[in-house]
Amino acid sequence: MTAQSRSSARNARNRCVPLSRTRPRGPLIAVLALALAMLIAGHRAVPGAFGTIVDTALPWLGLPVPLLIAAAAYRRAWTGLAVALVPLVVWVVLFGVAFVPGASAGRHDLRVVSQNLYAGNKDPRATVDRLLATRADLIAVQEFRDGPFAARLDAAYPYGARRGTVALWGRFPLRDAKVVDLGLGWPRALRVTAQTPRGPVTVYVAHAGSARPGATRERDTSVDRLADAVRADPSKRILLLGDLNTATTDRELERLVPMLSEAQLAAGTGLGFTWPSSFPVTRPDHVLFKGVKAEAATTLRTPGSDHRAVQADFSVGS
Fold first, then answer.
1. Confidence check: pLDDT of 315 > 90
2. Is it true that the peptide bond before 258 is cis, omega within 30 degrees of 0?
3. Same-domain status, 116 and 93
4. Is 241 exposed, middle or buried (CB count within 10 Å of its CB: 0-12, 13-18, 19+)?
5. Which terminus of the chain is less hemmed in, N or C, by CB atoms within 10 Å?
6. Residue 240 belongs to a domain with what CATH number?
7. Spatial contact of 87 and 33, defined as CB atoms under 8 Å apart
């Protein structure tokens, strides 16, 4: 056999190598898919500060799923492809309902807006102008400081309450304002009674402690104290507005969830991320409620702040 013949035979044998050898089936894909499904479904079992990080990133853990499905399809790894659908199903069960269109903004008795103004805001006037454009009945702010923008809110609303770095303005009388001690060393939460035309509504405005990777104790302590205050509150109708530095999927928020509901989940569409404002990846800003009915909820891009505002409409009843 000539050298040319031997080369041709070798090439022919290479062309006949089974597809299963050049594109191995997908046991690795299946293992990765099962691990991802277990992490998404069992994220609360992850301990410590890393568990909080996983909670916060939970909606984004669905991103690898299409890659696993595509890899399995490319390799014709049908078992791997079937297993790769498991984390997809788990993700849809957890978050799919959030993308069902919420109630459209229709009849409501009360519109509320909450905004972290951002201490380094270089254009607070533009931020406040956007908030005023909502025609909200109540506007809550965090990282508040005195300045021209505060005067604009004072001029637009007949009633206001300020404690430390949180404040509330309203179209209705705001009575019995008092500090809620979050254990942070200065006032970052207040409780006030809004005398709406349909009866009193207790309103909390809060800015929980900061939460950084590996350092969530300050945040956890402040949320615990806030939860204690809400739990002990005898009011039938409660709103909690503010930056809780706690994602909707964060286990720490569960301390408030049994008592209060999230307006975005009840009446919004989508996950309602608010931070950072340019490309939000999580939702530390919340409107929580009980004793009223959420009619609509959304987020607002506001100039100047590193947070988007959150807005919700409610039927208060009588």
1. yes
2. no
3. no
4. buried
5. C
6. 3.60.10.10
7. yes
